[in-house]
Write a structure and sequence with these properties.
The structure is a homotrimer. The longest helix of chain A has 13 residues. Chain A is an alpha+beta fold. In chain A, β5 and β6 form a beta hairpin. Chain A has a single domain, classed as YjbQ-like (Jelly Rolls), CATH 2.60.120.460. The two termini of chain A are about 25 Å apart. The first copy, chain A, is built from four helices and eight strands; from the N terminus they run ββαββααββββα. In chain A, about 25% of the residues lie in helices and about 35% in strands. In chain A, the strands form two sheets. In chain A, strands 1-8-3-5-6 form a five-stranded antiparallel β-sheet, with helices on one face. Chain A has a three-stranded antiparallel β-sheet with strand order 2-7-4, sandwiched between helices. Chains in contact: A-B, A-C, B-C.
């Protein structure tokens, strides 16, 4: 398992963490399997979407704010219930397929850490599991053989 | 795989199932891997959020009811389309990382079973997969060695 | 890993892909584990819900259109931000438990590929991971022994 720290900007933000995901998969030595990207914070989430146009993540935050407005008669005294709601709507984790030692992402896909009540210093974890018995990682030998 | 039964209260409810998740992970003998928590019901879901203040799960249900109101011109004759919609919004499963034989949850995170058309007697399952070849489980020897 | 191609109909659609999921699990030879169903497109998603009454998937699309309307003051110049938002709300993947070589679905559950900006020719992938060391797949011997 690999753990990463990031700093989010503004009250709500989507941070592209695709690079860290690639890094964690490479460090695992797993060639064929799956990777879980996990957010341990209850006002945060993980999502996959387009980042070629920065207006896409911006529009996602804008739409989520309409879907779960900050003020809406909530009871939670901390006043950030909308952030908790968004966390459950988007979800605290995503999985991607690991193929040839890399995340099998679509052409337009990036992986984002979402913070809905920032700015904050945050963590996320990546766990990689092999689909084959004799992965390099499991043998403790890195980069010797490639599963196909 | 472990299977659990629960009874939900009221028409909509979030039931904390973190204890059952810990139990299932312990029973698997897996020290390092991931756990899938799965809801086999189409008006239910699984989510991760805060349970320190019971107003957080209450606010989540309140917000979901605004997002997908019970009456909204649906066609499905059973009349519970809003519950099906919420099931797809929240999602029928979550994964958590298993680390040192325990779920790697954030400080404020609990795992919830959600029922959006209750009260009902419901089931959910937990499947645990090891990230290492020589887990206690895989060797059929429990608790002998710990992966690090 | 298995890859599948489908054609979606209409601007928004839910396509039942449960058959392909069963096929991919069977091809993997895994008896006890989990399967990840992954959508590599940023205007698509994967969800699990009821398909006994075709009005359920129809109501889900209808509700999602109210939750994230097509026109809502978005900035993204391609004009399909609502589809990206729905993709993040529903999520780009689901996992199911593999039990006895089959997906452990609830009585009313089907797995759907969702397209929110179609019609399009689309792909999705299924990755299966074993929960036991000596799965048929891992031994490279298919159908010889069954884990229980």
């Amino acid at each position: 398992m690999e753990s990463f720290e990031i700093s989010t900007r503004g009250h709500e933000s989507l941070v592209d963490i695709t690079g860290q995901l690639r890094e964690a998969i490479e460090a695992s030595g797993v060639e064929d399997g799956l990777a879980l990207v996990y957010c341990p914070h209850t006002t945060g989430a993980i999502t996959i979407n387009e980042n070629a146009d920065p207006d896409v993540p911006r529009d996602i935050l804008y739409a989520l704010d309409k879907i779960a407005p900050w003020q809406a008669g909530y009871r939670h005294t901390e006043g950030n219930s909308a952030a908790h709601v968004k966390s459950s709507l988007v979800g605290s984790c995503v999985q991607v397929i690991v193929n040839g030692g890399r995340p099998l992402l679509g052409t337009w896909q990036s992986v984002f850490f979402c913070e809905f009540d920032g700015p904050r210093r945050r963590r996320f974890q990546v766990q990689v599991v092999s689909a084959t018995k004799d992965s390099s990682r499991n043998l403790g030998v890195k980069g010797v053989s490639k599963e196909t």
